[in-house]
Structure prediction request, 333 residues.
Amino acid sequence: MKTLFAVLKRMMVNSPSPLPERAIYGFVLFLGSQFGFILYLVWAYVPEPWLHSLGLTYWPQKYWAVALPMYLLVALTISFVLLLGINMMSTAPLNSVDTVTDSYAKSQQAQESQKGAVPSLKDVSISEVNRIFFLSPRHLNHQVKSNLEEACK
Amino acid sequence: MTEEEFFDINGNTISLDCQSHSEFCKEFTVSVPKLSLRKVMNYTCAVWLTAYAVFFATDNTNVLSAAIIVTLVGMMLHLHFVKIDHESMLIIGSLGIQISASYASGRESTSFIEMSKVKDIVINEAIYMQRVIYYLCILLKEPSDPDGVSAVVPLFQSSKPRLNCLEEVYKSCQDILGQS
Prediction:
């Protein structure tokens, strides 16, 4: 009971430091994975008659010893391509309003700023940004502006 | 009429032509270079050599005629629907903006936007394929909310000029929009 409370208290702090419980989990996982691997090798390489003579008759076909890793690798490769495709599909197209504003910026515009207080952090409208960048070169350092343009071209 | 050396986002040369018809009427035309003969020859040779290789392997003469038809039809469709010759924007203060794209086959597609619907013309940045590009766009007003943006109409979509070209167009447009 005392150790359980101590464990709970330590867990609530949420640090990645080693704990005896984590060591146990790690060792169990290690043993399990090693056992699983040896079992897989035995199943793949030991000939069927030998397995039958030991009494292990109802094991899956050896075809799957090659097929399953192959399926996994192909699925991994396709998932890379799929991820790229999903990213490209969810990028807003050039004619969407999402490139200019969104619901959070709209609700910000409705808020009034208090008199005399430091102005709150707000979204600057794109018309204003354009005016500052392209219509008034005096307000922005020329070198900074040209560096920005070179970087974004 | 003014012409300068500009580039599009891929580095190809384009040309911008600004015509100032009057104080509040300006027309900007971005011209893309015509389909180069070298490209056409390369593409045609590639397709026909592949078709000949297939014919050599299968001894089926239909492959050859199919390749010829595909090349011809494909080129016609490309010129009519895909290959842009020039894109232009005509802005008339307090009347509206006319956007027109003219294709290599001579087809023109035009659209007109009233000035009452236009909120502003801005240079926006967005993610396009695997990079961020600048593009000029018209922001349309929302009928219910005067500060809101209801739609974004990108301009010069097929020619995609770079920032220096867009800045020129932007400054001239802001002059006209500021007057009305």
